[in-house]
Amino acid sequence: MELTCGIDEAGRGPVIGPMVVAGVWIDEAAEQELLELNVKDSKKHSPKRREELAAIIAEQFYYRLQVVRAADIDTLRGAMTLNELEAHVFAKIGSQKRADTYYLDSASTSEAWFGERFQSGLPFSARVISRHEADDIYPVVSAASIMAKVERDRQVDVIAGELEPHLDMPLGSGYPSDIRTRRFLKTWMQEHGDVPPYTRRSWKTVQKIRGELEQNTLF
Predict the structure, then answer these.
(1) Is the pLDDT confidence value at 219 over 60?
(2) Does residue 192 sit in helix, strand or coil?
């Protein structure tokens, strides 16, 4: 029976916290089980439902997670683009159990390039389907999306529990678009002279806040 693997990530864009990549492996018969669970892109489920689905997926299917820390993202980006990094980690996940077909949520604007980059990182040949919004198209990628998002949220909860008491203010989601996260970063940098732990120093958000603070000292 053919084995299929879906791979997706959560946390590609945040300035605080890790990126988490998940792979879920199923056989042909199991796809119907995912359809009956009504799995879909993790962002389309409530946090409570994501937790419920993640528990079911973890119990019923083979899966693997890779947590890429903020410091590792900064280091690796010195040698590769973020798209190259993501394809590399996807291939690392995919290599852990051979599948006949891999479905990828493409990070690159070129679906073909991302699929080829992934294939080059596998130690074996396989059919690779690289698509934008694959987590909305293929149930196995939806399942991977859910596993990655739930783990990313857990990681951020731990980080918030460690950092928030130092400032007595919310960390937020960790995304640059979150005003709470930007306020937290700026306040921490004002009080401590550096970014908080778990921050991606190479992100433009950090550089922008650092520039604002340096400019303020001149006036």
Answers:
(1) no
(2) helix
Q: Which of 140, 167, 131, 138 is nearest to 30 (CA)?
A: 140
**Do residues 22 and 51 both lie within one domain?**
yes
Is the same domain home to 152 and 190? no
pLDDT per position as a tens digit, 135-160:
999 999 999 999 999 999 999 999 99
DSSP-derived pairing of the beta strands 19-27 and 127-131: unpaired
Domain count, the chain: 2
DSSP H helix total and E strand total for the chain: 9, 5
**Alpha carbon distance 64, 200 (integer Å):** 24
From 157, 173, 198, the end of a domain falls on 157
Which are the contacts of 59, defined by CB distance < 8 A and separation ≥ 6? none
User: Residues 18, 68: contact at Cβ < 8 Å?
Assistant: yes
Task: With CA atoms as reference, report the closest residue to 164 among 205, 199, 196.
Answer: 196
Question: Which strand (E) or helix (H) includes residue 158?
Answer: helix 139-167
- Domain hosting 197: range is 159-209
Indicate the pTM of the whole model.
0.94
